[in-house]
Amino acid sequence: MARSLRIEFEGALYHLLARGNGQQAIYETDADRERFLGLLAESADRFDVAVHCFVLMGNHFHLLAQTRRANLSRWMHWLMVAYSVYFNRRHRRSGHLLQGRYKSFVVEEGEYVLALSRYIHLNPVRGPALGRGTPKQRQERLRRFEWSSFPGYAGWGEPWAFIEEELVLGELGGAKRDRRLRYRRFVEEGLVSEIENPFEAVRWQTILGSERFGQKVLDWMQGGAESRREMKSGLRRARPIPAPRDILAVVGKKYGVSPKRLLGRSEWGLAARNVAMWLVWECCELSLAEIGKLFGGLDYAAVAQRIRRGRLDFSPAGRRQLIAQMSNIKI
Question: What is the pTM of this model?
């Protein structure tokens, strides 16, 4: 069977699933789970992603997330590599931790979001082994399970700081003060009665939504520039990718430094150079090695360090604003 396509556009909403290589466990301790969630929060900020739901199971995880920029592959690659490096070092192992090919489904907003969030949150009590016992017993296990965004949604504790709940809770309508209770009841209905499997609505192996939504996505993928400009209802054409020289020109003007000087390897500690590396990495789809070659032959580790320094010069809001400015450079 052919691999399903990766669909990336600004504002795309995804259900994401990654499993351990060969079904192996990907979390051995609570410290592992905490580290994964820390990296998830860091990556959401770094790649401008809204994470709406998550659940961490023994050998896999589920996410419901929205990419504000067309950068799904870059985001997931960073998250999976960063966690794999941590896990292998901590547990003194080598080799692949996660399967190389994670699953991604583009999701239509509305009723599909609610159904999918319930599917994700019921993972700890679903299946032949985890779904054993009476509805009451499953309810108790679900309420004790802490490695999920559900306790925050249900109002049993403080929501995870990086989780953005409004997309899901907003689908319930009504008074905001009642939404957590209604959402908890909505999810727990799935413990006592058969609910519709949201993945029965998956189309073409990669789109979860109505036939009309699926056709819009396919038209966007297959059409030319004119048809892409006509896309509406949340399907926005990805911004053009600026060239590194355009980034250097803007950064140089902002900091009063020539582009040639920004590229010079001898310019150790130059703040504008770090910012330029960070923006080239964010906006130009170059690897760390390619950026290192561009900036005078630095190795990828040195580039990564300078990128980190460059982005720390700005607040999260400032980073988003500057990246948007670079992405809108007229080419």
Answer: 0.70
